[in-house]
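URGENT: need a sanity check before tomorrow's submission.

F., can you look over the Neutral ceramidase record below? I want to be sure the sequence and structure line up before it goes out.
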Amino acid sequence: MAKRTFSSLEIFLIFLLLMMTAITVALLTLLFTTSGISEDNKGPSSLATQGPTATQDSSTNTGPLPTQQPPVTHGPSTHHQGPPIFQNFSGYHIGVGRADCTGQVADIPLMGYARAGQTARGILTRLYSRAFILAEPDASKRVVFVSIDIGMVSQRVRLEVLSRLQSQYGDLYTQENVVLSGTHTHSGPAGYFQYTIFVLSSGGFSRRTFEFIVDGIVKSIDMAHRNLKPGKIFVNKGNVEGAQINRSPYSYLQNPLSERDRYSANTDKEMLVLKMVDLNGEDLGLISWFAVHPVSMNNTNHLVNSDNVGYASYMFEQEKNKGELPGQGPFVAAFASSNLGDVSPNILGPHCINTGESCDNFNSFCPIGGSDMCMAAGPGKDMFDSTRIIGDTIYQKAKELYATASQEILGPLSAAHQWVNMTDVTVQLNSTHTAKTCKPALGHSFAAGTIDGVGGLNFTQGATEGDPLWDSIRDQLLGEPSDETKDCHKPKPILLNTGEMSRPNPWHPEIVDIQIITLGSLAIAAIPGELTTMSGRRLREAVQKEFETSGRQNMSVVIAGLCNVYTHYIATYEEYQVQRYEAASTIYGPHTLSAYIQLFRGLARAIATDTVANLSRGPEPPFFSQLMLPWTSNQVDRTPENTTFGDVLHPAKPEYQMGEVAEVVFVGANPKNSAENLTDHTFLTVEKYENTSAMWQTVHNDASWDTRFYWHQGSSGQSNVTIEWHIADTTPPGLYRIRYFGHNREQNFLQSAVFPPFQGTSAPFWVVGAYHEPTTN
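Structure tokens as predicted:
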């Protein structure tokens, strides 16, 4: 494909961009090097108690993590022992817990697409941390798996969670037996990272969001710990149809034909479900692993939500927790991520959004408009409908597998963990040849984005040569990559040599978690990134063979994605050669997958031979105490003249039919004010009047799929809130109302801000029979 030329106007605009970027980088560097972040600069656990005054601590520490002991060999801690342990049964102690971790829903970027301007402006569904604790009958060994409705788990979040668990439970729950996995929704708030590239894309470090995520994870583990009871676990597997496509099929085709011929599709369609019940057969919880990107909500979305897998959790939990509001009830259903790196839910495939023609080609390129016009579409009439359709497809299969699960999991629990410097792993390719991993770097095609969300900066997927203009801009602003890094990453043309960028903090992690936990014959490999389809298959097969060779027969291996620390993508060596987005985002070079396979085989061998205690602990990851403040300012909220917060500006209609949308507009305030404390909060309720009790009963909140909360920012601190209720066909007729709950920011000169609560209530309205679309003859 011919190189694109630039007009004089484009060159002038790029020059302006270059100058503005240089000034911005200089100011940010000055900020980093002269001050810490006021909310957080004392290492793990400081955020829970620290006041607003900054101190000049050292910029890096390792945090108060415990000296490593094999935690799965210890009995119950003297701290928070939980319920009495009943030992004489066959199965496991099972504890489940779910806690809110939504955080800030306004004035913060959404994490995933890294699209400028895609900030949160409301909420579609709440985000949850779902924890599962499994312990052997005598409680001598236990493991923890947590699935969290966030883009990915950051190293900073994991270190803080581990620190707080140590404070509460001693060495009962540590880095070895606790797995934290992100669902990878692209519609959750950003701002909870410590490595510079993520801090910049997040618009700074958000104390609010970080605290909500950490607090939610710890609360969910606490709940699971308190809820431990004897039970049984059953496993089932089955294929999901109609929920995914491979978004980089041309990369997949680079893998050997003999390997591809072993599989019927270029995505992994298999779903694995764990069914958890108590000894009386009462349902406790579910974990499902299935490979699909939660990107049904595209990069034009501004509402915080958990996307398609979150919808599946919502549906399963509503089914099992009859009569409860979303997010409430004892049953917990987690739909966890797997090897989803090249897997899209937008099953209609890529098309040029300006012409409608297919752009399913090697470069995902449109004749008119280039790569920026090539986008994949989901099956619905809009992104909300596509999310529902894909989520329901996943839910229906999980429901079927859960109902028919009969193979019980029995056997010991095990866990193995190491910290590894992924920039310096020697890989034994065969008996005579070795290779090494590289310092982190991102290729040019990283900036192109994918058919699920394009980059928008004149980059294309599949670039194996650099662009002189962008390379020159990089060299001037950030420095030229070293020859060593260039050679190590070939054929990747390096756009950002992040492994050689350390100001104000390192841009990418060097120290990475690798981890396996086992439940009887099931091994869960906790991967710190996004494996492509074939990468996941190779790693699963290698780990399974290692177990078999080392004496553990008939082991099944499941991939848990986006665990513990985020390191972008992991493509196969062959996929790496053509440098589409996933390969350009494989930051440790062409042998990244081989390194992970070698390392995870070592963990499997240690578990199988009962030599986990002999594993090297590895170098502890850093904890950076000086991080950039959020870029958005805090503004006092104000109301229009002659109004107060919560007043109705646009009332509901007197009557609606099922299938219609009830809408109310209120005088509002910035929703981020409600994230200043960690108390439970909902921004809205839909309430039904019950004649028998003469009381209003809440039937929906802001965790419901049927409600939408939009925040519209005006000028001079004024804003409006629009609440929509999409009235389902199953809604009972009756009298309803919509309520809004918020907090407004008040601040007097030289005084701390306060956030008084307020509320607003619509006039009552009726819901009557079903709505029918008008027809035309």
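My own read: The longest helix spans residues 8-34. Residues 92-426+505-614 form one domain. If you see anything odd, call me.
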